[in-house]
Amino acid sequence: MIQFDESERRLLEQGITTSIRHYAPKRTRIGADSVRVIVSPEGKAKVSMKDYMWYQNNGFKAFIMRSLAGKNVPITLPGGRVIFRRVTEQDIGAHRITSRDDRTGRITKGNKPIAWRHPGLPPKRFVQRGINENAPLIARVVANQVLGQVRERMK
C-alpha cells in the first residue's frame, strides 16, 4: 500500500490547488481563493470550496424560479435605473409576449421566452482541468512511491 509522506502530500496539494484556482472563475477572487485540496497519507484527495463554486464547476439545468412568487425583484433598466417589480404566481412560467403583428394584433410566432426562467449554467469543469494539468506531477510522485517500495522488497 502506498503511503505519502508530508512533503509529497504538500507538493501535490499545492500544485493541484494552484491549477484549480487558475482555471476557476475570478469575478471577485473569493470563490477561487476558497479552493483547497487536501491529500491524505493514502493518496486520496478531497477538494474543498464554497458551495456556489461547486455549481460553477458542475453547472446546472435551466429552471423556472417559482420561489420568487410574491416577492419584489429589482430590475435594472438599460439606462441604469433600477425599478422594483412584484412577481405574481400567474407570471411565473407564462410565455411572455415579445411582439405583435401591427395589422392583425396577433402575437408573432417564434421563440417566446418563458417568464422568470433561469437559463442555467454550463459546467466550467475547472477542478478537472486543474487535476489533468497536474497528471505528470501526480504520476511522478506515485512512481517514486512504487519504486521506493520495489527497492525495499529487493533488499
Can you put this structure into words, describing what you see?
- The chain is built from five helices and six strands, in the order ααββαββββαα.
- A hairpin with a 5-residue loop joins strand 1 (36-39) and strand 2 (45-48).
- It is of the alpha+beta class and 155 residues long.
- The radius of gyration is 25 Å and the shape is elongated.
- The strands form three sheets. The chain has a two-stranded antiparallel sheet with strand order 1-2. Strands 3-6 form a two-stranded antiparallel sheet. It has a two-stranded antiparallel sheet with strand order 4-5.
- The chain folds into two domains: 6-60 and 122-154, no CATH class; 61-120, no CATH class.
- The mean pLDDT is 88.
- 37% of the residues lie in helices and 14% in strands.
- The longest helix has 20 residues, at 135-154.
